[in-house]
Amino acid sequence: MQHFIEKMPKAELHVHLEGTLEPELSFQLAKKNGAELAYKTPEALVAAYDFHDLPSFLNIYYAGMNVLVEEDDFYQLTFAYLTKARSQETLYAELFFDPQAHTSRGISFDTVITGIHQAQVNAEKKMGIKSQLIMCFLREMSAESAMQHLVLAKPYRNWLVGVGLDSDERNNPPVKFAEVFSEAKAMGLKLTMHCDVNQQNSLMHIKQCVSDIQVDRIDHGINSLECEVLCELIKHKKLGLTVCPVSNQFVVQSLTSDEIHKMLKKDMLVTINSDDPAYFRAYLNENLIELQKEGKFNQNQIVTLVGNAFKVAWLDNATQNDYLQQLHRYVSQHI
Ligand code: ADE
Ligand code: ZN
User: Fold this and answer.
1) What is the whole-number distance in angstroms between the Cα of residue 58 and the centre of ligand 1?
2) Which strands sit side by side in the sheet containing 269-272, from one edge to the other?
3) Structural domains of the chain, with CATH
4) What is the reported pLDDT for 215?
């Protein structure tokens, strides 16, 4: 099963580029940029990772970003992730980035997005891994700041496939950003929002995403299972759910395999993703392998989870079908 998962063609739809910053690269960039790190070695940094809920993770995640300063830093970050993803047979990835976490430190929007974009172009050329970019707004910041960043993004419209919403969910509901998401939709961008597992008002936030914001996808969304009518609506609208098992484990002490089984039983379009793989020490393969072990998923169920990611990816039908055919060719040779 492990080999079957490792070699399977895959897609990743929920990964934060800043969450792919490996300690070794962090130290390299800190030295180059003269940035202070609180730990002496990459090993000591990893040993200090202590996450038990969303805020405790976010504190460490934002502190880590201080080493990202120049355009080439964003290039290296992105290229390193895409190299790692390709080595795990990830053929396609949709990448989140958090521009407000950089502009708030005095780094220009252009620096961030140009570094990322150039890495995407070169990675596709050199390694054949295709990727698209999703700009996330930080939900604890104001709706005005989100709108200012959407305006900043307008000259780069063609480098983006969608917008998302992440960071601290407490007291920051989806409707706070209704206007900016409506404007993004008018720009032709796809919409998604985080509804992390077991947050305050999770269910209400998912309902707002579906009914008020009219998202095209939901990030996490595990708590939708608390409402049968909502599950039916998500299924009816064919909304993908980007679940991140290892990330969930830090909050609910389980890889949420029972919940993923329930979603599969309901024919909901659940997908498996890595979220912040450098921090959670698990890329896509490790997420799938650990999940399979906990939930005893069979090969067909793993194929459904991986196939769902290609089905709900923001790609044209021809490209999507091409990936799905590659997956089915692989499966017919290995089952
Ligand atoms: N930003 C990076 N990772 C996140 C997560 N898991 N939830 C919310 N915001 C995030
Ligand atoms: Zn996330």
Assistant:
1) 7
2) 10-16, 90-97, 130-138, 160-166, 190-195, 217-220, 240-243, 269-272
3) 11-333 (3.20.20.140)
4) 98
